[in-house]
Amino acid sequence: MKRQSQLSAFLQSLPKAEHHLHIEGACPWEIMTQSDPQQFDTPPPSWCKDYRFKTFDDFEQLIFKYVVPWMTNPERYAQTVEELFKVRRAENTRYMEFSFAGIALEFTGLSAREIAKAIKAAVPEDIEARLYIGLHHGGFSKNQDRYLSEILDTPEIDGIDLHGPEEFPLHDWSKEFWKAAKSAGKALKAHAGELSGPSSVREAIEDLGVTKIQHGINAVKDPGVLDLAVQSGASFDICPISNVKLQNVSKMSAHPLFEIEAAGVPCTLNTDDPFIFGNTLTDDYLAVAQGLNATPEQLAQFARNSFTTADLPEHAKKEAIAEIDTRLQTHLECSR
Ligand SMILES: [Zn+2]
Predict the structure, then answer these.
(1) 188 near 210, Cβ under 8 Å?
(2) Residue 264: helix, strand or coil by DSSP?
């Protein structure tokens, strides 16, 4: 028991960076339930540790039940981000890459620029944040060109990410837009290899020029794709608790995280949608410790990866990594 709480305290205090988080999936429950106790009377059932989604549709139902009625204006995006950073600061998170969903703009009629400005203004000064907009495979159903040019012209949007059901084919507009976004100085990401097979990871790398793959776990099923990921310098931003609760892996002990890392693809640990899964970033590190018997040294390596793959100056990466090394050393000495 003592060993367990020492490990929790070590993971909580470890400097960390998060690379994969959906702002709409980070709704601030306390504020929601206080502001509208009737609409938001019970938290999502998926907070239970043993909860498993039967289908991806079930996951989407929760988005419609909680997120859609809540995320209706830029102020609520800002409030969500403020609350998120209170939790992340308490677990020593120094850097964040997060996204908001482009498809939501069509429901709400809000502008990408307005939301991006509100989100960026809510980021505390001592935490570095890079904001991505997630674009559905099918793009926007109306006014696609106007939306896309607004994204390129909004400096608060640092990058683009591919969202939505992965079984959809990659459309020609995506290939062109990922190229245009790169030329405009935006960073590139894509969700791939979560719900679909390894070929989606190959497409993201070869057709979109992406090296920051969101999930990517099914790449493990094709050694050629894993090799391509290594050769192209890709990193995978993996969300262990999300992968288990959505049953994209059967159980934590079957998660391919270590196979991917051992193949030479640096992996980071992330929460994905902390409001839906009921997880903190420390919880994902703990879940890997418990489910995959990860050692403190291995857990510290994931924290190091989260800085080596961050968009930070070299000196900031070195400082964070030196602090990780010191905290690891202290933890190992205390737990002897
Ligand atoms: Zn995601």
Answers:
(1) yes
(2) coil
Q: What is the pLDDT of residues 142-183, one digit of tens each?
A: 999 999 999 999 999 999 999 976 567 788 899 999 999 999
CATH class of the structural domain 2-334: alpha beta
Give the three-class secondary structure for 250. coil
Contact between 171 and 203 (Cβ < 8 Å): no
DSSP category for residue 127: S
Q: How far apart are CA 92 and CA 90, in angstroms?
A: 6
What is the identity of the amino acid at 163? Answer: H
Pairing of strands 93-101, 128-136: parallel
Supply 266's token pair: 């640096």
Cα Rg of the chain, angstroms: 19
Q: Find the 177 Cα to ligand 1 centroid distance in Å.
A: 20
β-bridge mates for residue 6, sequence order: none
**Tokens read off for 212:** 């920051």
Contact of 133 with 186, CB cutoff 8 Å: no
* 36 CA from centroid of ligand 1 (Å): 27
d(CA 122, CA 106): 23
Give the active site residues: 194
Cβ neighbours of residue 336 closer than 8 Å, sequence gap 6 or more? none
Question: What separation in Å is there between the alpha carbon of 332 and the centre of ligand 1?
Answer: 33
Helix axes 74-90, 112-121, angle to 10 degrees: 30
Q: Which helix (H) or strand (E) holds 87?
A: helix 74-90
**Which tens digit of pLDDT belongs to each residue from 98-142?**
999 999 898 888 999 999 999 999 999 999 999 999 999 988 989
Q: Tell me how far apart the alpha carbons of residues 275 and 265 are, in angstroms, rounded to a whole number.
A: 28
Could you identify the residue written with the tokens 């470890």?
14
